[in-house]
Design brief:
44 helices; Serine Threonine Protein Phosphatase 5, Tetratricopeptide repeat; 5-stranded mixed beta sheet; Glutaredoxin; mainly alpha
Length: 859
């Protein structure tokens, strides 16, 4: 639409908005037979569409109000009788030319009659209606909302529509329900999920039990709080068990959880209401693709487009779901088809941008994201991507024949070389092990801010539980800087993610999430027995209490996890299944399963073909998991105390279980809180003999070391920590303390060892770099010391003078870096001009530096 016509629309918009807000008298739509109409509208909300159609036709024949015509059209559209809906909408525009909602329904019905020209004509008539109305009294609250929806279709800035149409209508007394639905849907379309949730909640406070409001609220939580999403879904279906948008939201959720048979059942229910529902048929196409049935996929897509042949929503939905299953090539192709139908369809443009970025086609992806943002500044995802691109432009790039790594300049300087080295080792080992040939560079992006990682990975900030994500040939990861103060072992994370590169390549991205994650965690433990999820007290209890998820539903455990423990247990159980398959049937069986997935075989038949029938396999795995859990600490009372209300109950339980691990741990921690260190020490020593398999601060060895430290028994503390270090590779506090104690004892080989391990956890800490620098000097490894001092300076240490001086000494001793040595000693003197040793070093450096030639004599 031309700018001058948009301006004219806004001129009409502003006084009407003010008039409504000020509470002037306005005209309500005719409400003949109000009670009967209200009852029938409730029947519509309850999903009794056929009854509503019959009642509406009868009332229209008797000459009732336009509300009956609108209700009839909505009901006909809901059950897929698009031709009848279009006829009634055309008649409605003739009979009720001041009902703008009638224009919108007529336009929608025209689209579903493949009458694009007619739909455009109706939209133009709606635009004329808005521009030509001079009597603001014709702008009922319903028309105000419909005007906003019309202006969105015409390309008016969404924020202007929100503030001048929807919000004023929401503040009326009483407000029209359409105002909340339109506001909430606008926020959903722009990925402003917080605003959408607030809007639908407010709408539900005015219109309780409204299924459309509850469905909108569920969608607002879909990408965040799945539990809240399911609550809102249940509320919507309680009011209207035939509510198609809610049924399709459940389908979406079930596809994410890889419960395809259950998704089919929900689709059956939705398509029973409307056999021609395009989104429902698009989901059928998605399921056919995931089941490697291209003929059915093609047929379902054609059916979805039967009544609206250029509907971009169909291919957009197909592409979006395929991308969520890591089928980015197919997803991008679907988005291009959607854009062929409607070149300015921004959802497809934005989704295609993300697909291209995940495929490593960064130039095209960023360009498309910027274009989407320019066309729609309100879209949160497009805005986030654009801002992220500006920040990533400042990243450093490290590259070799096989990898391209993007990370912040500081982090690239501190540990970029180690990143490339680790990735090369992973590539060499895993490509040989799985027989996979990688034909393109793997792109690795490491983000110092969690929000940037989330935007790059998911399009939105949030999802704090993820350390890294692999899309196939692109890996995104959180850096240690984003995880302070207790970062995870970044080497472990990158090994895990690169394993995904191998398995996704081996299967052409055709693998369930549980198997992909299970192999990655399994390979973590193969690379280092202390990496990855391992059996612990929590997992043991969950297994013995029958909380294992059946293999067929294991991917859903990642989505259904209600806390971090259950999410991590999903990773662990998946890895245990992989370990079970390899132990019982061999690695070749696992590789054959991956080969079958590559050819499009579904997971359960693939597993059964190379192991045994799924029912038998699940029973044997259950026994295997129980056996593994029982072996954690045989003979030890690891029963977790039940929830008890009174202290007396707790005392009784303690007396009955004097050797219980948890009871003794509680006793030890109580003694430590009371600072009774001498009493706590023997209790902790006995606990360690019993079981010491927990991680980090939950391990009694860490508590014993803290006790010995308070007893000033440094040698015992060091011995305990060294024992702890043989099983713990992911605890920065442990290695920081070990570096400190070994420095005090001048045990430089140990300092080197523990500093190196600490770098794998937190290379942004000065502790490992200082330890390596001092160890390098003491051991005569000057190059190691020079490198460490340079990295220490990059961290802006509290004592830069000494660091510059020590680096200058080493460079001067090397004999070939006098210019840099002079620069370093001058920086030391800049901080401390009276630093005598630095002054003498400067003289020595200048003495050995080549002197400039004398100037030529004057003529």
């Amino acid at each position: 639409m031309s700018p001058d016509r948009i301006a004219r629309l806004m001129v009409r918009l502003m006084p009407i908005s003010i008039w409504l807000f000020c509470g002037a008298i306005f005209l309500q739509a005719p409400t003949a037979r109000a009670q009967t109409l209200e009852d029938t509208q409730q029947e519509f909300l309850q999903g009794k569409y056929e009854d509503v159609i019959m009642a509406s036709k009868k009332q229209i024949a008797e000459g009732s109000s336009s509300d009956w015509r609108l209700l009839l059209i909505r009901s006909l559209m809901a059950v897929g009788r698009y031709g009848e809906a279009y006829t009634n909408a055309q008649n409605g525009m003739t009979d009720y030319p001041i009902r703008l909602r009638m224009f919108l329904l007529a336009r929608e019905a025209a689209l579903y009659q493949n009458d694009l020209r007619g739909a455009n004509r109706i939209l133009a008539e709606a635009q004329d209606f808005i521009e030509q109305r001079r009597d603001s009294r014709s702008m009922t609250p319903e028309n105000m909302v419909a005007m906003g929806e019309t202006m969105i279709l015409l390309g008016v800035e969404p924020q202007l529509v929100l503030e001048n149409c929807y919000r004023p209508a929401e503040r009326l007394d009483p407000p029209p329900r359409e105002a909340f639905l339109a506001s909430g849907q606008l926020a959903l379309n722009k990925h402003d999920y917080s605003l959408a949730a607030d809007t639908f909640r407010e709408g539900l406070s005015k219109f309780p039990d409204d299924p459309d409001m509850n469905a909108g609220l569920a969608k607002a939580f879909e990408s965040g709080d799945r539990e809240e999403m399911l609550k809102a879904t249940e509320a919507a279906l309680k009011t209207n068990p035939r509510h198609v948008p809610t049924l399709l939201l459940l389908v979406d959720h079930l596809i994410d959880a890889e419960q395809y048979d259950e998704a089919d059942k929900q689709l059956d229910a939705a398509l029973k209401v409307n056999p021609n529902q395009p989104e429902g048929l698009a989901y059928r196409a998605v399921l056919a693709h995931l089941r490697n049935d291209p003929e059915k996929e093609k047929a379902m897509r054609a059916a979805a487009l039967k009544f609206y042949q250029t509907n971009p929503e169909v291919d957009y939905l197909i592409g979006k779901k395929l991308a969520q299953k890591y089928r980015f090539v197919e997803g991008a192709a679907a988005q291009r088809r959607a854009l062929d139908f409607e070149p300015n369809f921004l959802p497809a443009q934005r989704e295609l941008a993300e697909d291209l970025l995940r495929l490593g086609q960064n130039d095209a992806g960023w360009e498309l994201a910027e274009s989407a943002h320019k066309k729609d500044a309100y879209d949160v995802t497009a805005y986030n991507l654009t801002m992220l691109h500006d920040r990533m432009a400042k990243f450093a790039t490290l590259t070799n024949a096989h990898f391209m790594v993007h990370m912040s300049p500081l982090e690239a300087e501190l540990y970029g070389d180690r990143v490339l080295d680790l990735l090369e080792r992973a590539r060499e080992k895993l490509t040989k092990k799985y027989g996979v040939e990688l034909t393109q560079q793997t792109v690795v992006e490491i983000f110092p801010e969690q929000k940037d990682f989330a935007v790059r990975t998911f399009g939105m900030p949030g999802n704090p539980g993820y350390l890294g994500v692999c899309f196939g040939s692109v890996i995104t990861a959180n850096s240690p800087a984003s995880q302070a103060p207790n970062p995870a072992n970044w080497e472990d994370v990158l090994w895990h993610e690169f394993t995904h590169v191998i398995t996704l390549t081996a299967t052409r991205n055709r693998m369930p999430r549980w198997l992909s994650e299970g192999i990655s965690v399994y390979e973590e433990r193969q690379a280092n027995p202390h990496w990855g999820e391992k059996m612990n007290l929590g997992y043991r209890q969950m297994i013995l209490e029958d909380q294992l998820t059946p293999l067929g539903k294991l991917s859903g455990a990642f989505l259904g996890a209600t806390n971090s423990e259950h999410l991590l247990f999903a990773y662990y159980e998946s890895s245990l299944v992989v370990q079970f398959i390899v132990d019982k049937f061999g690695l070749d069986s696992l590789k054959k399963i991956l080969a079958d997935l590559h050819e499009g075989v579904e997971i359960n038949p693939a597993i059964a073909a190379h192991t045994e029938p799924m029912a038998d396999l699940e029973k044997k795995f259950d026994a295997y998991a129980r056996e593994t859990a029982a072996k954690l600490a045989p003979g030890v009372d690891l029963t977790k105390p039940p929830e008890m209300r009174t202290e007396a109950e707790r005392d009784i339980w303690r007396v009955a279980h004097p050797n219980n691990y948890y009871i003794r741990m509680d006793h030890a921690t109580d003694l430590m809180k009371a600072k009774k260190w001498a009493e706590a020490k023997p209790v902790l020593e006995q606990l360690i003999e019993t079981y010491h398999g927990e991680s980090k601060a939950e391990n009694p060895m860490w508590l014993l070391a803290a006790t010995e430290r308070n007893l000033r028994d440094t040698n015992s503390e060091l011995a305990t920590l060294e024992k702890f270090a043989t099983q713990e590779y992911d605890f920065a506090d442990l290695y920081s303390r070990l570096v400190e104690l070994c420095r005090q004892q001048k045990n430089w080989p140990a300092v080197t060892n523990y500093a190196d391990r600490l770098l794998a956890i937190n290379p942004l800490s000065p502790v490992p770099h200082r330890g390596l620098a001092e160890a390098g000097v003491a051991l005569g490894k000057n190059e190691m010391a020079i490198t460490a001092y340079r990295k220490l300076l990059a961290l802006d240490p509290p004592d830069p003078t000494e660091t510059h001086y020590q680096l200058a000494k080493l460079l001067h001793a090397r004999g070939d870096s006098e210019a840099e040595a002079r620069r370093q000693v001058l920086q030391a003197l800049e901080e401390a001009p009276r630093f005598r040793e630095a002054q003498r070093l400067l003289l020595d450096v200048d003495k050995n530096s080549p002197q400039p030639p004398p100037p030529p004599p004057a003529s």
